[in-house]
Amino acid sequence: MMNKKMFYKVAGSIILGSLCIFSTACIPTAKADSQMVKNQSAEITAKQMSIDENYITGDINIPVISKLQDKNVEKKVNEIFEKDINEFVDEKVTMAKRDYKEENKDDQKEEVNVTYKVAYQNENLVSIVIDKKAKQGKNNTFTIRKGYTIDLKSGKQVNLYHLFDSREEYKNIIKSFAKDKGKELINREILDDNYYIKEGSVVIYIDGYIIGESDKIDSEFEIPFSNFKYGINTKTELSPYAVDVNIKNIKLDTDYITGNINIPSIKGLEDKKIEEKINKRFEKEAMDFKTEMEKEGKEGLKDAKKYGYTQRPYGADIYVEEYKNEGDILSIYMLYYTYTGGAHGASNGVGYNIDLKTGELMNLKDLFRDGYDYKKAIDEKVKAQIDSNGQEIIAKGVAEGQKEEAMYTPYKGFTGISDNQTFYLKEDRLYICFGSYEIGCYAEGMPVFEIPLSEFEEDLK
User: Which domains can be identified in the chain, with CATH numbers?
Assistant: First the structure.
């Protein structure tokens, strides 16, 4: 069950998301323009939306895949794109409406635009790049880039590691390539979903702020396939989904609370009692969160009126990420976000790792054979990653002329995993998760450490 302590109050800027089709400000336009790649099995077109309100305008283009043989896969792929873009746009629309003041309307009006391009496509996969741009005020413009490489047989996203032979030290090759271009990268900057494919090359994109190019959308490194000893596998086929995961959205929009409550539910299990059991858990914990935050928001507004100060609406959001969904395991990570005033909000991640045979939640210890000291093994692997990243940060800083004794390395607060450690599974990998402030400062975010399950060998159940 979700711990009530997750509702701790830390100040923060409101971050809102939604799985709905934007708000009433978004209006579908005429027939979509085709961006079909010739001689391929799938057709990709643009679903166009427009926003035109006093406080925000924009044009939104969402890629839509059609003509796949498996319509369930087609639906799943399109939901991935919808989820990404809708969350971004709904966040910007909500924040613009909240901040809008009639007397400053000329300076307040914001813009939001979303475009995409098909970077690569064959009969097995498609690689699409989505650019989400927002303009806040006169001078503050930023773009978020996201690459999606999708397996057209299963509808799942293809991670970077899926493209390479297990013997390929692909991250070292990427770092070496970037170094030749004058940029030092470290492992934690090379994420397995921050890439896309072009004809004959893989493109890695890095947050420009990390490597001192904050004026750019993202710093990209286009690496020819020939740079990799064992080549690139563009015919990867991933395991099919075990169950369908749907999302119900409840939008909050009052004078005391705003936000989006996204609640997952599954269908497709033969045992409907187990299916109902799983769905009731998701529903109850999400609604408990909603009820608690609505209560706090009302109390905050009441105090504001009583003592004569302005109270911005509290924020309450639940974001849902579906990870492992195959065989007898469903792994979903849900981020519970709260805002109660001040500079920034509080986020708490909860991993729901479910045995689909029983409907029960799995603890981390359930993955390993009885008697195995899994905590010690995981602690050593996490500590090794922290030390390795720290050494890379120091080496990078020294090369740039900084003094080693004056440099800071992240995650110094790590002392070991807990008995109820948050985690999720994805493909054949284990991800160990920590909350804000748990092992580092707020700026260090919510750290996640990836460990291939193969490293545990015979100690896995």
Answer: 26-227 (3.30.565.40), 241-348 (3.30.565.40), 367-459 (3.90.640.20)
